[in-house]
């Protein structure tokens, strides 16, 4: 299912979903199927065991990579849903801080 022959550079990166039911929500890249499709999960609605297959054209890649999520995926090939939720909360806090500095 996931192409394990090469490690995608975007694993652990936060993406904003632009299209579909989950539009305007954030998730982590947890795998890459090919150059067009990736797997995303957020640990809350989309668990690690049932990731969503998304077209990269329907995503906005953010400038944030969670090293905790990335290391866990690279070391064991898995990441806990609680770690995904924790990392997402950490990302959202940094987003709020950046927005408040901009005002």
What does this protein look like?
The protein is α+β, with helices and mostly antiparallel strands. The chain has one domain: SH3 type barrels. 31% of the residues lie in helices and 27% in strands. It has two helices and five strands, in the order βββββαα. The chain has helices at residues 67-76, 81-102; strands at residues 13-17, 26-32, 37-41, 52-55, 59-65. A five-stranded antiparallel beta sheet has the order 4-3-2-1-5. Strand 2 and strand 3 form a beta hairpin. It is globular and about 40 Å long. 30% of the residues are buried.
Strand content: 25-35%
Q: Give the CA-CA distance, first to last residue.
A: 44 Å
Structural domains: how many: 1
CATH class: Mainly Beta
Strand ordering within the main sheet: 4-3-2-1-5
Topology diagram in text:
Blueprint: E1 13-17, E2 26-32, E3 37-41, E4 52-55, E5 59-65, H1 67-76, H2 81-102
Antiparallel strand pairs: 1-2, 1-5, 2-3, 3-4
Features:
SH3 type barrels; alpha+beta; disordered N terminus; 103 residues; five-stranded antiparallel sheet
In short:
With 103 residues, the chain is α+β, with helices and mostly antiparallel strands.
């Amino acid at each position: 299912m996931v192409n394990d022959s090469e490690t995608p550079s975007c694993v652990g990166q936060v993406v904003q979903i632009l299209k579909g039911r989950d539009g305007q929500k954030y998730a982590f890249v947890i795998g890459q199927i090919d150059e067009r499709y990736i797997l995303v999960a957020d640990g809350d609605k989309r668990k690690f065991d049932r990731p969503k297959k998304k077209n990269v054209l329907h995503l906005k890649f953010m400038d944030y990579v969670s090293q905790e999520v990335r290391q866990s995926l690279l070391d064991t090939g898995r990441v806990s849903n609680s770690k995904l939720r924790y990392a997402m909360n950490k990302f959202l806090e940094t987003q709020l801080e950046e927005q408040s500095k901009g005002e």
